[in-house]
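re: ur question from earlier - yeah i can do the single chain one, its not a big deal. heres the input i used so u can compare w yours
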Amino acid sequence: MEFHGERNLWSFMDEERKSIKLPRRLSFGDGDQQQSSSEPENIRSASAARPDIAASEPTIPPRPMSPGTPWTLSPVRTSPSQSLLYHCIASLHRHEGNIFSITLSRDFIFTSSESSRIHVWKQPDCTEIGCIKATSGQIRAILAAGKILFTAHGDCKIRIWNASNAENFRPKKITTLPQRGRFSLFSKKSSQQHNDRISCLAYNKEDKLLYTGSWDKTVKAWKINERRCVDSFVAHEGHVNGIAINQEDGCVFTCSSDGSVKIWRRVFGESSHILTMTLKFQLSPVNALALSLSSTTTLLYSGSSDGLINFWEKEKMSGRYNHGGFLQGHHFAVLCLVALGDLVFSGSEDSTIRVWRREEGNCFHSCLSVIEGHHGPVRCLAVALETENLVRVKGLLVYSASLDQTFKVWRVKVFPAEKVNLVDETAAAKDPQREIVECETSPVLSPSWVEKKLQGNYFQ
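and the output i got, formated as tokens:
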């Protein structure tokens, strides 16, 4: 296990401002810090999307370049009602490989990558306080649940850590799943172990059950108190890419490269699981799931490789999930999803993050903003509520990691929904000049992940 000293993440301020080309390793000299502090803060605003064409967000031509930076200032939206503001408050580029997963606890931010290291940052000031170095291959998935951290490693095993809040961060490994048996010293693999990489994790807090999904097409349930696998079942015909759990009723949702989303329930009084529904509205692989729970409704979201986000609403009486529609806007595959209240955040292969809001009392969604800044596919997201005042203005911290090997922190402010003038918005939508500008502001893509895409392994 390896630990590193404290380092303030705010010192890694958007190195892309210095060069329009690929990100470079940041310099920690005093000169660079002074230059960063003198540059204007990059703040963007976005208005409520048009209800009839929420997939696009045209902008007027950007302002001229500001002195001292090759980046143009943020585009200004023409709508008088600004419903979302955002800006990037930190950007870090590491030459340790791609970040595969981000998870949040009350006190910490954890990131895992193909470097076999788990970096730990303090929340919300993002001071790096430690680093867990593993020797078991790439860490594809991590999950924080209270003071416990679950990590999935390249040896197809899960490590459980005690990551409680302390002045001197020293995580202690509790156990490894599956445990080595007394008579399995010479066996290569335990019968409880996955046969391929573990791609996703989910935790049932009430029953203390950890669910793991794998590329071996199976899902396993682990009883944490007993430290053993209590159920294993073949869930899909392709790789299992995502798992979500309804903490209220214990339903388990899985998605796969076979294009399906499935709902599983535990048999009463037993540890086994049965399939209750198969939701298949997309032909392309499903990469991510997110569950939105409220007092009035329960919605399940799925992001697929065709760029669509399908959603299902739960019937109160029968408990069935009915297809409610889809959110269209991303140009390429949706790789990650986060639902928080009436907001949905989606990261895509098109290198953007979209913020969607569901209207109160119905299932209509509007795209509030398209967050740009990454130069490769947005691989993982995490969102934390920072502030919320009496007028329902939400302050959020959004953490994102891309296959351009950058980790970014965004501060987002979401204002209450306002009525939109449909006539003015429709007329603006037909303006050809705005459509041209929208195409011209596409982000510059990193050749490193483009090459991986051509090789067919950029999601691996």
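The longest strand covers residues 82-93. not sure if urs matches, ping me
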